[in-house]
Amino acid sequence: MKVAIVTGATRGIGRQIAIDLAQEGYNVVINYNSNEAKALEVKALCDEFNEAIIVKGNVSEANECQAIIDAAMQKFGRINLLVNNAGITLDNLVLRMTEEDFQKVVQTNLNGTFYMCKYASKIMFKQKSGKIINMASVIGEVGNIGQANYSASKGGVIAMSKSFAKEFASRGITVNCIAPGYIQTDMTNVLSDEIKAEIAKQIPLKRLGEPKDISNAVCFLASDKASYITGQVINVCGGMVI
Ligand code: NAP
Prior knowledge:
Elements: E1 2-6, H1 12-23, E2 26-32, H2 36-47, E3 52-56, H3 62-76, E4 81-84, H4 99-127, E5 130-135, H5 139-142, H6 148-168, E6 173-180, H7 193-202, H8 211-222, E7 233-236
Parallel strand pairs: 1-2, 1-4, 2-3, 4-5, 5-6, 6-7
Helix pairs in contact: 1-2, 1-8, 3-4, 4-6
């Protein structure tokens, strides 16, 4: 049985990825930061297809990332797929952005991805196989007003994933990124309906994305159909960035 770890799997995109991977035949390690009740809900949905466990861990802390990997190994004995999905935003114009908010976003989105990749790759090296999918963002490619911290973190995830792809390829490990556009989750629910409608107008496919749009791309990259793809970024954004 294949084993997948999904970080930040309580809500939004991560929740959908966990459920869909369970349906695709994975045992799933559902990581959460604070929301145990939501994590248990996702576990119940995954358990309908395969075995799932929930593991609390703040990905911005190196030792907690190691603990997530250890919990996966203790329960299932292998890691076939790591999806680094956990992420946060703390938006503000640069002059108002505090040093703490810059640091917090980079620490969670970029450092967290580094720690998880580092510790999972140690296991994958021994297995001589594995797949890593890192959740970036189109904002990491094109930037955005009010998102200097977020764009830096996601641009860093893209560049770092390309380095990992080169470093891990000889061990049979692929590393790719998905760069979502605007997806309907708690993260974008802070935007008013008016702003969302305005954004939708600017998107060639004329709608915001759904978590399922991203999860479909994850399932593809995780599948054997993507075995010759590494070091790439797939934009899933309705054509927002072309
Ligand atoms: P969301 O609805 O806000 O959910 C965020 C998830 O990340 C939650 O499960 C949360 O867990 C978890 N999380 C946050 N900080 C964490 C930490 N320090 N350690 C472990 N888990 C943590 O976000 P989303 O919209 O689904 O976004 C998922 C990913 O896609 C993120 O990386 C985001 O940057 C990226 N993305 C989203 C969009 C979008 O439009 N939504 C666009 C581009 C990229 P708890 O519930 O336990 O706090």
